[in-house]
Every structure is written in C-alpha cells, then in structure tokens.
Specification:
Blueprint (H helix, E strand, L loop, with lengths): L4 H4 L3 H5 L5 H15 L8 H19 L8 E6 L9 E5 L6 E7 L7 E2 L5 H10 L7 E6 L3 E2 L1 H7 L5 E3 L1 H8 L3 H10 L3
Parallel strand pairs: 3-5, 4-6, 5-7
Antiparallel strand pairs: 1-2, 2-3
Length: 187
C-alpha cells in the first residue's frame, strides 16, 4: 500500500482486528477519528476518515484488478496537488486507457453526493488535464452514490460510481480482502 494512512493511522489493530464488514470499518474509523481530533496529530477528523477510506479503496482496487466490474489496474494514490483526483491507474482492457479515481467518505450511507461535496473538481480536473482528458472516471463512496440528476444531466453518466452497497458486495465477509488490508497496514 502506498497511501500515507499506513503511517498516519496510529493503531491499525484497533481499526482492523476482527473486521470483516464495511460498516464495522466505518464505525471504528469514525470512533478513531473522533478520538484523535485535536490531539495534535496534524489532521482533522474528516481528513483521517477520508484517508482511511482512500487506503481501503487502494487495497480493494489492487486486490480486484482482474475483476472487470472495477476494471482498474496499476492503481496508485495521486501525488499531485489535491484538486479532486485521489488516485490513478489504467483500465484492465486490452486497449488500456488511463483511469482517474475519486474517493469520498460519508458517515451517512443513505446520502447522495452533490456538487456541494466538491465532486465537480474531480470531473473538471480529469477532463481538462492533458494526461487524463480521455480517462475513465470512477467514484468510490460510502454514500449511496451521486445524485442521479447530477450524474446523468451534468456528467452525462460518464463517471462510474461505486456506492456503499456496491462496495459491501466486494468486501463484506471477504476474508482474503480483509487479511490483505491488515497485512498492508502492518497488523
């Protein structure tokens, strides 16, 4: 795992021991983030939760790189200025093309992402970048998904979206995934 969460999460065991469900991970992530808020660690509770979910998504993508439902290989966290892209990779198709990924953590799994959540930055950065102009755009979120009108009318249904229920199907009770995530986190 390349994400910085590997070093900024001070007690990965508390977060990941006997964790086999996304909802359990989210509950523990929320609790850990709130406990660390204001303790001089240098990040906010929301940043900690976002980083934790970005780390989970990195492991998910890399574990499932051959799975055409996700369709991403050679994934790595974005190292450029934070303007909406959280990670990049390539499609796992024969004629591979670039992929940009945005990861949005929300505690409310029934909410929908809207432009107020900054999702337009990702689309703008992906579509105006010389390197990623023709990239396949993918969102991973613990929310329900992206508001349907925004997705269809504003983004022409271009970004692929994996919401809370979609991600659960990949990782809930998937011992291999959780064992790999623990190993990557040093647990």
């Amino acid at each position: 795992m390349q994400h910085r969460f590997k070093t900024t999460c001070l007690d990965a065991s508390k977060l990941l021991d006997n964790c086999y469900k996304l909802s359990t991970f989210m509950n523990r992530l929320n609790k850990t983030a709130n406990e660390q808020q204001g303790n001089g660690y240098g990040w906010t509770s929301d940043e900690f939760k976002g980083d934790g979910f970005e780390a989970l998504v990195e492991v998910l993508i890399n574990c499932m790189s051959a799975d055409k439902r996700i369709g991403i290989r050679d994934y790595a966290p974005w190292t450029g200025k934070d303007m909406g892209i959280d990670g990049v990779g390539t499609t796992n198709e024969v004629k591979a093309r670039p992929v940009t990924v945005q990861v949005k953590y929300r505690s409310d799994v029934t909410s929908e992402l809207t432009t107020a959540d900054g999702i337009s930055n990702f689309v703008a950065m992906s579509s105006t970048s010389d390197e990623y102009r023709d990239a396949h755009m993918v969102y991973f979120t613990t929310a329900k998904g992206i508001n349907r009108n925004i997705l269809e009318q504003m983004y022409n249904s271009k970004p692929k979206v994996f919401g809370f229920k979609d991600i659960k199907k990949f990782i809930d009770n998937n011992a291999v995934f959780w064992d790999i995530f623990r190993t990557e986190m040093g647990v």
